[in-house]
Amino acid sequence: MHLFKRSVVADLGIFHPTDLTVEDAQYVSRLNTPFRLRTLKQKDLTDVAALLSYCFYPQEGWKSWFNPLMQMGISHDLQSRYSVRTMPYTSLIGAQIVHRSTPKLIGTVEVALKSLSPWMPFSPGVPYISNLAVLPQSRRQGVGKQLLFACEELVRQWEYNRIYLHVLDDNTPARRLYAKAGYYRVDSPVHWSGLLFGQSNRLLLCKSL
């Protein structure tokens, strides 16, 4: 039985810690990694917004002038959605590294129950991953893979057996990561906004758990 199908969200992040304490931990790393997962709190959402803005928007040139506005919009969206979550799907998970004295967010991802059809937003939701982001200097260290594993573990706890995500057709590194993690392409409706604005095609991927 799937309860609380509306407002089901879990934001995950990877942190450098001040100590070894992993608060409210719900996930154990599958690999021998230098970081540890921990739950994130509402106070962490500002750092999440800053990381998403840094990873998804230009940091050089005239377009970078809009980054403060983009970060403010992301932060407002996160705070709004966090405030209306329904238990038990409110876990925020991250990972920590012991050799830093000040916590620093280096990776984040979000998993939620979401409709896959933009034309039917109130149709039954499915577990859906979005906003997977890792700082450039922390990539190729297993961070993204561990965040995916954490999402999958949460979805198993929610008693679902499939998880979905979208990836841009021209995002080769991300497609390679997802393929190695066991995600495969499935048919999905055409995203007309991408065609209208000349954006890369969005591919729907799925993994059976």
Mind explaining what this structure looks like?
- The chain has 209 residues and is α+β, with helices and mostly antiparallel strands.
- It has five helices and eight strands.
- The strands form two sheets. It has a six-stranded mixed beta sheet. A two-stranded antiparallel sheet has the order 2-3.
- Strand 5, helix 3 and strand 6 form a beta-alpha-beta unit.
- Helix 1 (45-56) crosses helix 2.
- The radius of gyration is 17 Å and the shape is globular.
- The relative contact order is 0.19.
- The model is unreliable at 1-7, 17-28 and 87-99 (pLDDT under 50).
Oligomer: single chain
Bin the strand percentage. 15-25%
How many angstroms does the end-to-end distance come to? 17 Å
Give the count of helical stretches.
5
Features:
5 helices, globular, disordered N terminus, alpha+beta, 209 residues, 6-stranded mixed sheet, two-stranded antiparallel sheet, 8 strands, 24% strand
In short:
The protein is α+β, with helices and mostly antiparallel strands and 209 residues long.
